[in-house]
């Protein structure tokens, strides 16, 4: 039978691993959370108004308006499954990019 101390140690290792994995993925995103939320709002509104053409056209428009490097933006979005405008809205979740897995113990 596993002791409580061993269970706590395993949980800590898992949490540390998940936080490191999330930090590594978030490092690809060249935006901060408010910028990402702004991008998602823009892309969602553009797709609703203009339709969907299987490209990141609306995301690219937003990036140009905000002086964000397109190559870095594409790299960050594709890390989270955002290859085109529709997938950006559906797959790129600010909570997945920036949210805390669990608070580290104090």
Q: Would you tell me the overall average pLDDT? A: 88
What profile does the largest beta sheet have?
A: none
Q: Bin the strand percentage.
A: under 5%
Enumerate the spans where pLDDT stays under 50 for 5 or more consecutive residues: none
Q: Using the CA coordinates, give the radius of gyration.
A: 18 Å
Q: H/E series, N to C? A: HHHHHH
Structural class: mainly alpha
Distance, first to last CA: 27 Å
Q: How many strands in all?
A: 0
Count of the separate structural domains: 1
Please identify the oligomeric state: single chain
Level of helix content?
55-70%
By DSSP (H or I, 4+ residues per run), the number of helices equals 6
Shape assignment? elongated
Quick structural overview:
This protein has 106 residues and is an all-alpha fold. It has one domain (4-98). The protein contains six helices and no strands.
Question: Which features does this protein show?
Answer:
6 helices, 0% strand, 106 residues, mainly alpha
What does this molecule look like?
The protein has helices spanning 4-26, 33-50, 57-65, 70-79, 85-91, 94-98. The chain is mainly alpha-helical and 106 residues long. It has one domain (4-98). It is elongated, with a radius of gyration of 18 Å. The chain starts with a helix and ends in an 8-residue tail after the last helix.
Strand and helix layout:
Blueprint lengths: L3 H23 L6 H18 L6 H9 L4 H10 L5 H7 L2 H5 L8
Helix pairs in contact: 2-3, 2-5
